[in-house]
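Record format v2
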Amino acid sequence: MGSKEKVLSDAAQKQKLLLEKDYSKYGFKDPEQYVYRTPKGLSAEIVEEISKIKGEPKWMTEFRLKAFEHFKSRPMPVWGADISKINFDDFTYYIKPTEKKAKTWEEVPETIRKTFDRLGIPEAERKFLAGSGAMYESETVYHSIQDKLTKQGVIFTDMDSGLREHEDVVRKFFSTVVPFTDNKFAALNSAVWSGGSFLYVPEGVKIELPLQAYFRINAARMGQFERTLIIAEKNSSVHYLESCTAPVYSTDSLHAAVVEIIAMPGSRIQYTTIQNWSSDVFNLVTKRAFAYDNSTVFWIDCNIGSKVTMKYPSVFLLGEGAKGEILSVAFASRGQHIDSGAKAVHLAPNTKSIITSKSISKDGGRTTYRGLVKVRRGATGVKSNVRCDALILDEQSASDTIPYMEIDEKDVTIQHEATVGKISEEQLFYLMSRGLKENEAMSMIVRGFIEEFTKHLPLDYAVEMNRLIEIEMEGSVG
Amino acid sequence: MTLEIKNLHVSIEGKEILKGINLTISRGEIHALMGPNGSGKSSLAMTLMGHPNYKIESGEILFEGKNILQMKPHERAKLGLFLAFQYPYAVPGVSVFNFLRTAYTSLKFGGKPDTKKEEFINILEFSKLLSEKMKMLQMDDTFARRYLNEGFSGGEKKKAEILQMAVLKPKVAVIDEADSGADIDSLKIIANGMNKIFEEGNSGILLITHYNRILQHIRPHYVHILVDGQIVKTGDASLADEIEAKGYGEFGELNGK
């Protein structure tokens, strides 16, 4: 072997080790032993089969089948990240890991419980959560909420139980925010959805601690299609937090979720996502909120993992005085394209939106901010502020900003600001002169860059987030 | 002889800017380095700390007898060298507290402390130390929560640099223009702070300054005049007074200009 080849192979080896190390906490896998799984691929029969297993009412089965027809007829989107390599026949659309959903961790089958133990979920629940749910493959395996919240009328359960136990509420709101005709992946989700959270907060109830859902894909070539519906009644407030991870495979997995949020007048909903899928997951998610008079919807959306992400959390500001805030963070490394952003649609007067995007790209990673601010005629006194900051850590990496504005009203205040930065040699030198190694200095700068995001997280998550950034940065300097 | 600079020639972008500097600084000594604009004062500071743009053409820099020319800035910091920057950089989103704690831990433990317990003790110990030093520099407690150098006034930036010096306790500190941008009150506080750090830590100090304003408050043991990349004269504190009276003009001539 020539010396040049030797150097290359050493570098590749080092990179491989780093990649393995990066994800070691999340990348482990369990043996695939399941109660039930549908055959690979998708057909109307499989859609019906899923609905039958779940014992759903007829309207839901019909809804699924209509959505499936729409999915088939709808072409793949040609804008955004490259998802042309997705082969829909390659995935398994439904995997049932256990017979029943547990209310205590002890009831969860041991292999799965160990998984969530390793991910620190029961510990987090004890420490700082008002309730938590855990989804494994296609089903929620665990769900729990503090008794006092149940007594106040709060419902926090998995979507399937929600449909069984609160059919009237679900039927009233399901698919009203994101119709299956919205896009191809919303249609797919509508056809094969399983699991996800159903959260209902009654009028005036303010939940102090966050409620959390954790999503785990374990099997290879798996499709996970959770469906979440959150309704906050008048003057209530809630913080919902979700995290997701998966083992590393050399084959692709698919995650296509739909999240619908309804914020009734005067309510406040914060929805925080920390997406850390392994680097072989296509993550194509539709998230949308309806915000009525004087309500606030705050999306915090952080994407570190996945092969491709396309996700644009949206707020439709339907009532006067409603406020939508969307803070999105993207961190793309080698082989990743994170195409994310936000949409604020102002349909009522005196509504306000704040969109902040922070993106970091390194080792050939690519981030795209894609956003829309739309103001309908008659929506006077609208204020909107959009800020996009991109940090590009090396020459191989890239970042684009694609802001759309559709403003049909004159009486509005719209601000847009975009910056693209690199870490300057001077900044690094300054930090290094205080005893920090180059990669420590870089990771400090990156952590500072997204501090606006971490400060909104519960402390344990902020610490974990900073640790993830450190791990990401370890491989960045030779 | 903590820091020894021997016949140091340095260039930047092909232009020679330091032309044979010889300077020795021991702990317990305060040296003032004075000179007109463009004489190479800041270049010497940057070179000592290991800025990658400054190319060493020849000569040596020894720290406690060890040649540090090949060392990265963080390795030099670990030996006990410190540079207070003339223009410190802003690091948005990183608080003074977090930044300094990281630096302190890094210098003290050579990275992260091993166990959680150790880290906890370290946080307490560090908080106490920081608050003590902030009091010394008459800084408000809220200062620790502000983002490093972001939106700082001239005086605040200088104080923050001296605060870092006070916390990190270097063996030799190079202070590049501690007085520029600071008002008279800040200047006094900074100078008093430096005097205390000097007495407590028995550090060696190289005080780089254009004017002798700060030398009213800190009396140097030695004064060196740098003109066009060379030290043209060395004397005691009275040399600074001479500069104050006559300016740098005649030293230019000494250097053959």
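The radius of gyration of chain B is 18 Å.
The first helix of chain B runs from residue 41 to 49.
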